Amino acid sequence: MADTLKEILLDSSRRPAVVSDFENLVDAEVSDKGGVSGAVVKTGFAAVKKIKPGIIPAAVDTLLDDFTGALEPFYGDYKAKGGNDFGAYLVGRSDEASDALLSVTDSRADKSSRDSIKKVYSKLRPNGKKNVEEALPRLGQLIDKHAALV
């Protein structure tokens, strides 16, 4: 079994499958959203996909290295503690883990030259932490799945 997220997620032979699984995770999380805030997320997500078809897998691929770096300290601690469910570990540190992941997207949004992307991101960002925290169990399961394949 691999010791680092970089070994698990960024290997060029496995990267396409990792990106595809992360795209599916994003789709599932958006699909599961309910209520008014869920409608906002779904509308924003649909708008982003309409602005540039294929943007979700491209964004996942582009952000994967940075997300991996943001999660690496958590994974290292998880491994050191002999964990067997990374999703549960992330939930236990949801505040820190979600902040680490959002620091990646905040930085990218700030650097974007596309006003439409910045506008959509600014509308989604107020609920971003809650949405990321809700995704942590699935995220951990996805990482556990790929770790088992290494």
Report what the structure shows.
The protein is mainly alpha-helical and 150 residues long. Helices cover 82% and strands 0% of the residues. It contains eight helices and no strands. The protein has helices at 5-9, 15-32, 35-51, 55-80, 86-92, 94-111, 115-124, 128-149. The longest helix is centred in the middle third of the chain and has 26 residues, at 55-80. The mean pLDDT is 92.
Compile the SSE list and pairings.
Layout: H1 5-9, H2 15-32, H3 35-51, H4 55-80, H5 86-92, H6 94-111, H7 115-124, H8 128-149
Helix pairs in contact: 2-4, 2-8, 3-7, 4-6, 5-8, 6-8
Comma- or semicolon-separated keywords:
0% strand, 82% helix, single chain, 150 residues, mainly alpha
Beta strand count = 0
Order of helices and strands: HHHHHHHH
The mean pLDDT is 92
Strand proportion, as a percent range, falls in under 5%
Question: In short, what is this structure?
Answer:
Helix content is 82%, strand content 0%. The chain is an all-alpha fold. Helix 6 (94-111) packs across helix 8.
